[in-house]
Amino acid sequence: MPSFTSAVAELDASVVKITRSTNLRPVPAPGSPEELSHSHCTDHMATVRWTDANGWETPEVRPYENLSIPPTASCLHYATECFEGMKVYRGYDGKLRLFRPDCNGERLVNSSQRTSLPGFRFEELKRLIAKLMQIDGARWLPKDQPGRFLYLRPTMIGNGPHLGVQTPKEALLFVIAVPWPDPSKKVPEPGTKPGLKLLASHPDTIRAWPGGFGYAKLGANYGPSLQAHGQALAVGFDQVLWLFGQDRQVTEAGASNFFVIWENKETGKREMVTAPLENQLILPGVTRRSVLELSRAELTRPCGDLAPVEVVEKSFTIGDVEQAWREGRIVESFVCGTAYFITPVKLIRNGDVDIDMLGAAENAGYAKQLKTWLEAIMFGKDGKENHEWSYVIEGESDK
Length: 399
Fold this sequence. Notes:
Blueprint: E1 17-18, H1 33-36, E2 44-51, E3 55-56, E4 60-63, H2 74-78, E5 81-83, E6 86-90, E7 96-99, H3 101-114, H4 123-140, E8 149-158, E9 170-179, E10 196-200, H5 219-222, H6 226-234, E11 239-244, E12 249-253, E13 256-263, E14 270-274, H7 286-298, E15 310-313, H8 318-326, E16 330-337, E17 341-350, E18 353-356, H9 366-379, E19 390-393
Parallel strand pairs: 1-4, 10-11, 10-17, 14-15
Antiparallel strand pairs: 2-3, 2-4, 2-9, 5-8, 6-7, 6-8, 7-19, 8-9, 11-12, 12-13, 13-14, 13-16, 16-17, 17-18
Organism: Aspergillus nanangensis
GO molecular function: branched-chain-amino-acid transaminase activity
Catalytic activity: L-leucine + 2-oxoglutarate = 4-methyl-2-oxopentanoate + L-glutamate; L-isoleucine + 2-oxoglutarate = (S)-3-methyl-2-oxopentanoate + L-glutamate; L-valine + 2-oxoglutarate = 3-methyl-2-oxobutanoate + L-glutamate
């Protein structure tokens, strides 16, 4: 008997339809109000349409413009939306690089399937981004200005016109690129030490829970947290340190993964500790993963002036952090992620207690060392031009 099954098309970024903009946008200067707005996108965007009947259509790189979606679109009513945060870096050898893009592609697929959107071959994401950067890279990240980057936002939305509780029948994957201020160049106010101030979340405010979707990068994770973030900013803090459960386990800091380095109370050994992935309360950050892998490879033995650390993924509470501070066992703390990269934490306010996280200055330096190693890979310097975590984008256009 004849078969009536037909395979739908896979996402394929080897062939991309390109429409060049005839109205190029001004490139904002570093530190300008336009850059600080986080909204001044490059000249082009990448888009790919998907339907449940035919699968993925031919990808496009086209002029940046507003999207047109119906008021009944699934993403507007049922939060069928997910995204990634990435950067493209202008290397000191003149080349453009992505940092571990397959990790982002794989996570985007996991997020999309968690929110009932289609999957795809995750390797195609880096190829799609490369097509976009081959057009916009030379103008927005000039070769004579190494050490700069653009923030990339790959996003998928359910955009079909089908109202009603059902899985989306249409979706749109798009990628935009945005000039982004470099947080490492932010100068602290006179008389203050560098680092973030974190406000511990209130027990009645929860970011994620077991069986939920805290491990996926969904817009639905972020909207409900913005009120608490705004309240933290209003009283002089930078981010919320999200706690969970009656024992108040430490999970994430804002949209970043949280690390603390302390002396273990029982063994006296130095540990680098971060929350585990097993309970799916935190996002499996690409920077987090890289910090863990580098630390296990390089910091479990003496490294310059740094004493060796044991790298531990385990549940710990804000009470554990406060006790370590009171007993003088805190060495340093930092957050990591694409937006904040690696940024030290100087203080955590837990209720009416201010916990000094800077520790003893002579013992610290792990975050700085990790940042140096990662920057060398991202920007192709100090012998890291061909590191396995880098994806070099070739074939830039000068047009």
